[in-house]
Amino acid sequence: VVQPHSDRTDPYGDDIEAVLITQDQIQTRIRELADSAAARYADIEDDLVLIGVLKGAVMFMTDFARALPIPSQMEFMAVSSYGSATSSSGVVRILKDLDRDIADRDVLIVEDIIDSGLTLSWLMRNLATRSPRSLQVCTLLRKPEAVRSPVDVADVGFDIPNEFVVGYGLDYAERYRDLPYIGRLHASVYSD
Ligand code: XMP
Ligand code: MG
């Protein structure tokens, strides 16, 4: 466990108890994930379509797209999952749909984190009905629960323990998305 914070002042003061994955570790792993994906899509004809789910996947999406050695196009969806703030039910409503048709396109869902996998498996089924040429998933983080999910994930950045994490797109009450690393909050943050 690396303690926060290196060269810059932490905007959230003492809220972060520990850094679990550093900025360097994230960026290094993203280059590996991008190379792995590019190898799978070496012979596609159109540009790869990346689909990110707002808002958590935004940081990963932008860094991943820039690390990819092949051209990609960015699409975003916003969904709301019925359930509590920290777990999902698998019942999903689309708040913002894709702007374009993905029929016959190679599509890679770029996910921030897979926990139960319920949201993702719903999304896979929904996107599959639009007849993409291929449909795969790359996730930065995966929790232990996800192992029981039926979704087949092409690449995983980091397997993490079953604890709530923030940073690099992931929030608690909309805060901490802007941190460049993945960390754990002090318990006092939840009780305040
Ligand atoms: P499922 O269970 O459907 O849920 O795979 C995935 C979604 O749950 C949220 N999630 C988290 N958000 N820190 C977060 O900020 C976490 O540790 C965490 N675990 C799950 C997230 O919205 C993800 O897309
Ligand atoms: Mg959230």
Automatic annotation (TrEMBL):
Pathways per UniProt: Purine metabolism; GMP biosynthesis via salvage pathway; GMP from guanine: step 1/1; Purine metabolism; IMP biosynthesis via salvage pathway; IMP from hypoxanthine: step 1/1
Molecular function in Gene Ontology: guanine phosphoribosyltransferase activity; hypoxanthine phosphoribosyltransferase activity; magnesium ion binding; nucleotide binding
Its EC number(s): 2.4.2.8
All residue ranges annotated as the Phosphoribosyltransferase domain in the record: 24-172
Database matches in SUPFAM superfamilies: PRTase-like
Keywords recorded for this protein, A-Z: Cytoplasm, Glycosyltransferase, Magnesium, Metal-binding, Nucleotide-binding, Purine salvage, Transferase
Subcellular location as annotated: Cytoplasm
Major enzyme class: transferase
Required cofactor(s): Mg(2+)
Family: Belongs to the purine/pyrimidine phosphoribosyltransferase family.
Encoding gene per record: hpt
Example GO BP: GMP salvage
Name of the featured protein: Hypoxanthine phosphoribosyltransferase
Entry keyword Transcription: no
Catalytic activity: GMP + diphosphate = guanine + 5-phospho-alpha-D-ribose 1-diphosphate; IMP + diphosphate = hypoxanthine + 5-phospho-alpha-D-ribose 1-diphosphate
Major site of localization recorded for this protein: cytoplasm
One Pfam assignment: Pribosyltran
Record-linked CDD domains: PRTases_typeI
Annotated Gene Ontology cellular component terms: cytosol
Top-level taxon: Bacteria
